[in-house]
Design a protein that fits this description.
- By secondary structure, this protein is an all-alpha fold.
- The chain is 73% helix and 1% strand.
- The chain contains 14 helices and 2 strands; from the N terminus they run H-H-H-H-H-H-E-E-H-H-H-H-H-H-H-H.
- It has helices at 3-16, 20-45, 53-70, 75-90, 101-121, 123-126, 148-167, 173-183, 185-190, 195-221, 231-244, 249-265, 273-287, 291-314; strands spanning 139-140, 143-144.
- A two-stranded antiparallel ribbon has the order 1-2.
- A hairpin with a 2-residue loop joins strand 1 (139-140) and strand 2 (143-144).
- Helix 2 runs antiparallel to helix 10 (195-221), helix 4 runs antiparallel to helix 10 and helix 8 packs across helix 10.
- The longest helix is centred in the middle third of the chain and has 27 residues, at 195-221.
- The chain starts with a helix and ends in a 7-residue tail after the last helix.
Length: 321
């Protein structure tokens, strides 16, 4: 689908469905897609399996909350600094970029657990188990975004910005280098590519995106609890990327929409909600090899071919290109 049509749909969506709860869920989907797109750079582009994105998500959320509540910092500055704090924290992961596969996953898991324990136990800074309350609504140039529609446009706008920035990576020299690292790290090193340099940059990009998402999340829900950034949040982000399609930015967005939005749609069936959600995830992976992005692309190709056949039958004298 052309990007302009997607943008038009995002702009019109709040007018089609103005319900506050629906807009809140859509905002959460946009926030989750930012973190998922960052993880896509790490996993899909450079082939590094991380189960620690919740740590950077939490660092961004708590950093933004602390800066705005304790220091009275404007939202936009706190947002950028929150992403920067998460990116700087990812530099601690540089030594483990030499690891691969399950070893790297376990190392990032250990970092995630460490940050979770800090968020839970350091009450003087984070509020500990009681959580962090009183987070203000986001404000732009003195205008407080109290309306759910305004919050949605803010989150969707940042998600679109992150998408277009990350989409430019693939065709660049940096994108080609990390693709070479993903395909064969030894061959890339033999070609003169600094493996640690490029892998660590991917960690920083993914962490910065997660920090931005965490900051937006803090000001959207206005209350933070350590359990929001546990090991399971990292698994949730990983599911978004895998179900959406590894290596596809649109897939990361689709995966975020499925993982965040589908449980809300299934809420009416009560206790059967999560079993049905799990079954849908399994079916998606069984019948959609390559994730939702590949599945949607396949459906679009079939519809396009069917449309051409219909036109050919209506106008048999015309040869369709």
């Amino acid at each position: 689908m052309p990007p302009l049509l997607v943008l038009l749909g995002l702009l019109l969506l709040p007018w089609i469905e103005p319900d506050k709860f629906v807009l809140h869920v859509l905002s959460l989907i946009a926030i989750a897609s930012i973190a998922a797109m960052g993880l896509q750079v790490l996993l899909g582009y450079s082939g590094q399996l991380s189960i620690g994105q919740a740590a950077f998500y939490g660092i961004g959320a708590y950093s933004s909350a602390i800066l705005t509540v304790n220091f009275g910092m404007p939202f936009l500055i706190a947002l950028v600094l929150a992403g920067t704090a998460a990116g700087m924290a990812s530099l601690l992961m540089v030594p483990i970029t030499r690891l691969t596969g399950a070893y790297l996953a376990v190392a990032t898991l250990g970092f995630s657990i460490l940050i979770y324990l800090v968020l839970k136990n350091e009450e003087w800074l984070t509020g500990g188990s009681f959580g962090f309350i009183g987070i203000p609504r986001p404000a732009l140039f003195g205008f407080v975004l109290r309306d759910s529609m305004h919050s949605y446009y803010l989150c969707a706008g940042f998600a679109a910005l992150v998408y277009f920035l990350l989409a430019r990576i693939e065709g660049t020299r940096f994108g080609r280098a990390i693709n070479a690292v993903r395909q064969d790290a030894d061959a890339a090193a033999a070609s003169g590519i600094n493996i640690t340099f490029y892998k660590s940059h991917c960690f920083v990009i993914a962490a910065f995106a997660a920090g931005l998402g965490g900051s937006l999340y803090a000001h959207e829900v206005r209350y933070l609890a350590p359990n929001d950034f546990s090991f399971w949040k990292s698994i949730e982000m990983l599911i978004m990327v895998v179900v959406g399609g590894i290596g596809s930015l649109p897939g990361a967005v689709l995966g975020a929409a499925l993982v965040v939005g589908l449980p809300e749609l299934l809420r009416e069936i009560g206790d059967y909600r999560m079993p049905v959600f799990g079954a849908i995830l399994i079916a998606t992976m069984l019948f959609g090899e390559g994730g939702l992005a590949a599945l949607c692309a396949g459906v679009a190709r079939r519809l396009n071919a069917a449309g051409k056949r219909v036109l050919a039958s209506v106008r048999p004298g015309k040869k369709l290109s």
